[in-house]
Amino acid sequence: MASLIASLRLLPRSVWLLGFISLMNDAASEMIYPLLPLFVVGTLGAGPRVLGLIEGLAEAVSSLLKLASGIWSDRTRRAKPFVVMGYGVAGLARTLIAAATGWWFVLLCRLADRVGKGLRSSPRDAMLGRSVEPGQRGLAFGFHRAMDNAGAVLGPLVAAALLGWGMELRTVFWCAAIPAVVVFVATLQLREPEAEALVQSPRFNWHLGEFPPRFRRYLIVLGLFMLGNSSNLFLLMRVRELGLPQAQVPLLWATMSGVAAVFLTPLSALSDRLGRRRLIIAGWIAYAAIYLLLGWAGVKPWGVWALFVAYGLFIAATEGAEKALVADLVPREQLGTAFGWYHLTLGITLLPASLLFGALWESVSVFAAFAFGAACALLAAGLLMFWIRDDRS
Question: Which residues form a coiled coil (predicted)?
Answer without folding.
Answer: none
